[in-house]
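Module 6 notes. Inverse folding takes a fixed backbone as the condition and produces residue identities as the prediction. Think of it as a translation problem where the source language is geometry and the target language is the twenty amino acids. Below is one complete input and output pair. Work through it position by position during the lab.
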């Protein structure tokens, strides 16, 4: 996946776009995490990013970037369909890696603690 395409995916978008992404992420995030947990080697970072995206103390632009990446992650049909074993989440990993590299400083120890707790539970509590 080239940088231009990832850059387009990670655009925070306008208020309506962010709201749509937020709804999509809230509805599908945990089921996608369960499906992808063996294929995404940095799932704790992804879950911490989820908590960061819904933290009202996170800057607006950072929330927009995270919601864009997480919306792509939960989208059922993307560049490589997620149901393809071992390669289905590779494009999602590229988008998530780019987003995390951009905003890593905004993911706090509290976000990581929430991620650790959520990943250790069978049914995580949604934010």
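Target side of the pair, the amino acids:
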């Amino acid at each position: 996946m080239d940088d231009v395409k990832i850059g387009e995916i990670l655009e925070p978008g306008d208020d309506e776009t962010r709201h749509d992404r937020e709804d999509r992420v809230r509805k599908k995030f945990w089921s996608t995490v369960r499906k992808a947990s063996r294929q995404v080697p940095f799932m704790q970072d992804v879950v911490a990013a989820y908590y960061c995206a819904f933290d009202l103390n996170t800057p607006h632009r950072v929330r927009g970037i995270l919601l864009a990446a997480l919306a792509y992650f939960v989208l059922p049909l993307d560049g490589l369909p997620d149901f393809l074993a071992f390669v289905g989440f590779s494009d999602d990993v590229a988008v998530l890696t780019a987003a995390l590299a951009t905003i890593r400083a905004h993911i706090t120890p509290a976000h990581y603690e929430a991620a650790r707790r959520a990943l250790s539970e069978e049914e995580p509590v949604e934010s």
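Reference fact for the lab report: DSSP finds six helices and no strands in the chain.
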